[in-house]
Amino acid sequence: MATKKQKTDKIGIAKFWGWQSRAVSLGSMTVIYGYLMIYCTNTLMLSPELVGTLLLVSKLFDGVTDLFAGYLIDNTHTRFGKARPYEFAIIGVWLCTWLLFSCPAQWSYAVKAVWVFIIYSFVNSILATLLNTNQTTYIVRAFPNMSQIMKVNSYGGIVVTLGCAIVSMSFPTLMGTMATSGAGWSRLVGIYALPLALIGILRFVLVKETVPVDADSEGKIKAKEVVAVLKNNKFIYIVAAMSILYNITLGMNASSYYFTYIVGDISKYMLIASLSMPMLLVMFVFPVMMKKIPISRIVMLGCVCGAAGYLLNFAAGSNIVLLMIAGALYGLGGLPIAYISGMLILDCAEYNALKGMARAEGTMTAFSSFGSKLGQGIGSALLGVLLGAAAFDGNLAADAQAESALIMIRSLYSIIPAIMFMLIFITLYFYKLDKVLPKLRAEKAAEGNS
């Protein structure tokens, strides 16, 4: 019996690494997009308020396409499966990312602003949306049981963290020497774009949809069924709220400004990024924790860690040792949200099915993804608007910046993210699905036996 269980829990090496490949690729894109604001303000010479507004408007549009993508994937039926065909979007993601960071600096102010808005919107509203939305639908059809899915999300997180850490450490180091002009930025991003596009497409090549799901026999999901699940599943709103708050923190991403203007050396951010390496060990603990502690509570524990780390940032100033301790704390705090909170969406889809509604994994994922995109947009807008309000000037060196600008940069890297983590903790306090699902499963089993 034990041997049979071990066999069903085993994931092939090619399949395991294939699944992580696209996550590494898309995660690396997120790392690089964290430098978009400073590229726009310091190279393209666009005002931070304008850039923040453009990114926010783009994310609002993104929310509409998220819901459409969820409906599209729920109603896709091809010989490659429901979700797998959309993996080709990763090629477009990297081509457009390179184009975004290749905007000629000599273009007019208005043309540069339009260029940034259009390409950023296309990447996030269309391409990345399809990749984010297909995740849940794909995983339940690629892996036959929850044990394998837990391993893919937890142990796989080690691979993703390691891959993204390489980009996080190398990018600011190369940025310090290469990103001194528009052409330098183009070459820098080009170094990453081609290999990461090839890595990203490996998921399509190596991971097939082989697991039958009951929802697949239901045919197309009607619009009224989508409305029904959004109306009757209150838990997905809590998951979306968590996504919004966490991604506000990611969207602000004031690290490039902090290490440029407070620490005085952007290349030193590599030391903070390198902390993700020892954190890989924590990922081995998640499968054990998830057997004993509800995922929502694990995320809440992470929030306490994250808030403490960001508050320490404010006291640290330019002290690298304190910044590294703070980085370890908030990095640790973000791991559960980044790598295992997606299983909350699976729970929401199961809740739908147990309540007699369509599973609608695509719609559930799209709704959470909408929260992520909205949060990123709000975060980017806050970064731009608050820097502008504090009199930040991308043409000035650190010693010439207004004191209000330096204080604002410190706050964006500390106090505001800490508040976001505290709000996530409060939000998840009301997530009770981990108590509701066992009862619904028992009722369903009893109906089947009667």
Automatic annotation (TrEMBL):
Residues passing through the membrane, by range: 21-38, 50-73, 85-107, 113-131, 152-172, 184-206, 235-260, 266-286, 298-316, 322-349, 370-392, 412-431
Xref: Pfam families: MFS_2
Keyword Transcription: no
InterPro entries referenced in this protein's UniProt entry, alphabetically: MFS_2 (IPR039672), MFS_trans_sf (IPR036259)
BP-aspect Gene Ontology terms: carbohydrate transport
One GO location term (cellular component): plasma membrane
Gene3D superfamilies given in the database record: MFS general substrate transporter like domains
GO MF annotation terms: symporter activity
Keywords associated with the record: Membrane, Transmembrane, Transmembrane helix
Key word Transmembrane present: yes
Protein name, as recorded: MFS transporter
